[in-house]
Amino acid sequence: MPSSTRREAEPMRDRVRLRDADENDLDLLRHWDEQPHVVAADPNDDWGWETELRRRPDWRELLIAEVDDGAGWRPLGFIQIIDPAREDSHYWGEVAADLRAIDIWIGEASDLGRGFGTEMMRQALVRCFAADEVVAALIDPLASNVRAHAFYERFGFRFVERRWFGDDDCFVYRLDRSDWASQDP
Known about the structure:
185 residues, alpha+beta, Aminopeptidase, 7-stranded mixed beta sheet, 7 helices, globular, GNAT_dom, Acetyltransferase
């Protein structure tokens, strides 16, 4: 991250935090799932929130990002971090055991473009690379989502391949630990 971007991001680090998602978040996640910008980025997934919020497999984290907006902490977005080699649906197919895959979105359109997503992703990557064995993180935005591509590329993610996941035409991106470490997160 360039030093000017790093300086601008510092105050955001204190304003955004991640916590475990739980059954109390069910209505919120259902609401976010219906927002046009979320549907546009993830049109064909059924997260099965009622079931998934109760499950606690050791290969996955479901997280709610919260922001301190001056009046207290409020929900901001969602992050899922998985070990794609161990994930039970085998969504990623055959992959190495030393990876993490991330899903991320901001819940309300009014929170887009304010730097929150950058801080959410930074914190997600810190979590991914906290485990010494993790060598890279993966993401799979829709091929048509050019804004997401630019967002991930700013973090150092590199395009790997164009791939279909079910009905979704996606770009697979990868961020290697060495590229992340050189950014001074």
